[in-house]
Amino acid sequence: MTNHSLAEAVTSPSPSPAPPQSSPPGRVGALVRRLLPKSYLILVLIAIVIVGYYVSEDFLTIRNAENVIAAASIVAVLAVGQFFVILTGGIDLSVGSTMAMSTVIVALTLQTGMDAGLSVALTLGSCAVAGFVNGMLVVWLRIPPFIATLAMMSAIKGFSYIIQSTSLIQILNTSFIDAFSRGTTLGIRNPVLIFLVVMIVAALVAKFTTFGRSLYAIGGNPEAARLSGLPVARNLLITYTLSGLLAGLAGLIAAAQLQQGSSLIGVGYELDAIAAVVVGGASLMGGKGDPISSVIGVFVLATIINIMNLVGISSEPQLVIKGAVIVIAVFLSSAGGVQRISAFFSKFGRRQPALR
Predict the structure, then answer these.
(1) How much is the pTM?
(2) pLDDT along the chain (356 residues), means of 10
(3) Which helix (DSSP H) or strand (DSSP E) does residue 129 occupy?
(4) CA-wise closest residue to 256 among 163, 61, 137, 123
């Protein structure tokens, strides 16, 4: 070999090895990791609808669908407010009592002959004040949200009972009932339109506004958010006030549907709202989730309950099944369930190296 050819052999780049091809199981695992967090709620809801179709001939009827949506509209509005609180790493146990207070205040003011619009404004303002008090307890007195809102739940419930003075207060104002229950706008029932508008506005706020993005930062690491200059205290006050306001709005829908006000109406609704947010994929540690998924979580639970009612399952087994659904949802959203499932699919069928 000449010196020239030797130099060419030394300097010429050797062919690079072909990049390793990902195995089909690896691609399956990557696909699962990408799609499962975004689609499992829709898949679950579709599966529940299919089950409902097979177990009851009354499930896929217009009347039953209207009943499910009417019942879910109240919890959907509550869940949106609860979502923002949970997003910050907090919790609001007072929304059920605030909702009940809303029904009592609007019923009392309408009974006195007050204009429906003024009555609604006064009711929503009172509920927003209750939410602001929650925020003050958490931000200024530094009471843990669980304790602060638990105390407010008791206080608001007692206040509602005191001002109610009777077992229930009938609502006869037709304009109020039409606005929040029987009426339609653009062919859509008003309760449905209300929760759709609330959901869409909340989704836009969470994704595209500085306030919404700051709530994710606060929930992820409140100290880091404070050190980075975010107005943590102000945003928490706004969040709890918003939760109270939306609880009041849910109370208006409930009052119009039931045509009465009572301090007992909101019992258990706070747990339904929290469960829906968790089923929707939000983490109780904060910093994760979105309002639309929370509303889908509402419909997952509402549809399951509706199916159990149609097949005649009593209330006690319903609570067991509902609890199991919540546990599974927490496993998928907060306990690394999605990662564990995707890791399983990544390992499933992986080819072992051939033995020499």
Answers:
(1) 0.83
(2) 47 48 51 53 85 88 87 93 95 95 95 94 97 96 95 95 85 93 87 94 94 93 88 95 97 94 90 90 86 91 90 84 79 63 65 52
(3) helix 116-139
(4) 123
